Structure formats: C-alpha cells, structure tokens
Amino acid sequence: AEVRPVGMAVNALLDRLRRALEAERSFTANSAHELRTPVAGALAQTQRLLAELGDVRAHARARDIEAALLRLSRLTEKLLQLAKAEGGLLRAAAPQDMRPIVSLVLADLPGAERVETRLPDRPVLSLLDIDVFAIALRNLVENALKYSPANTLVQVELTADAVLRVSNQGTPLTGEAFARLRQRFERGGSTEEGAGLGLAIVDAIARGTGSAFTLEPGASDGVTFRLTLPRS
Predict the structure, then answer these.
(1) Per residue in 102-128, pLDDT tens?
(2) Where are the alpha helices (DSSP H) in the chain?
(3) Measured between alpha carbons, how far is 130 from 93 in angstroms, rounded to an integer?
C-alpha cells in the first residue's frame, strides 16, 4: 500500500515524457511535410522567373532566391528523415537483403561516380526497414562526399555479417568531434553547406534499433563510419 503511490507516480511521469517526445516528433514531421509543397511551388515559380528575366541584376537576385529555396527544400527533407529516424517503425517484419538498396541509393545520388562499392556475393539479411537503411546510407555517403577532396574516392562496404562501412579521405575525425557531430544541427565549424543533421539521423536510427554507430579508429587520413545493421 505504501509503495503503490510511488509506482503510480513513476508511471504517470513516464507517460508524460512519452507524450512529450511523441508531440515533438509529430510537430517536426508535420511541419516539414506542410512546408514541402509551398517551398516546391515557390522554387518552381522562381525558376520560371529566371527563364523569363532579361535584366542581369534582377536575374542575379532571382538566382539568390533560388539558392535559398533549394537550401530550405533540403532542410525540409532532412527534418522528415529525422522524424522517421526517431519514430518507432524502423524494423521490418522479416529479414531482407540490403545489397539491392545500395545500388538503388547510389544510382540516384549526385557524385556517385566517386563512390566505390564492395558487396558480398551472398545476401546480406537485416531486419532494418529498407527505407530506413536507404536514409542512413544516403546521409553517410553524402557526408563522405562533402568532406573529402574532389579527386578522391569514397568507399562503401557492406559485409556478409551486416556491417556497413563508409570511408573517405581527408582530415581525420576525433572521437570527441564525432560525439559532437551526432547532435542535431551541429556542423563543427565547417564552411560547407548543410543542416548539420546527417550524422544525427544515422545516430537516431542506430539508437532506435539498438545498433552500433561508431567511428573506426586508427585511420591517419580520412574517416570511416561503421553502422551495424540489426539481424534479430
């Protein structure tokens, strides 16, 4: 009788916390979804205006507007990905082969000609939802392409035991910096364009599936990210 009120209070606290987290995810997803259509419409109108403008200075201003709308469009897409990564539907009902997803993602990715892939001959089965895997892979490869010299290759390896490795060349990353960059909107002082959400999205997927997302140590040149895919 004395302990029962404590249990009820803890359950009520956990319920309020759950509802608060769900409200935050729902707001992010709904806001990003509602922004997609007006942003796409404004971008289309701007691009049409660019085709019609003859004045050089007005054309330059319209180009600036187009660039701003493109950045907003990319941010909206990243927010939708983050909402999905922080949701609960990250696992598939049955194991699926992840190898075809690698080819599909890279076929639609700008800069894919710089990506070198290594895939095993036999199926790589995982319980990770294929759309969620595509989101994680795309963000890791985009990050690797962005932060490596233009004339270098990015290595993508999917092993037979369901481990994804994405490696690039360039400035090595410390463990402390990696921990910081997994936070939302953290860009680490980089001058590259981006929202600072790519690694946060992958980290959310790893935490949501109980998987490991790590930085492989020991590389003197470049960075290797390692994501273990859930198999059970």
Answers:
(1) 999 998 888 889 999 999 999 999 999
(2) 4-52, 56-85, 99-107, 130-146, 175-181, 198-209
(3) 11
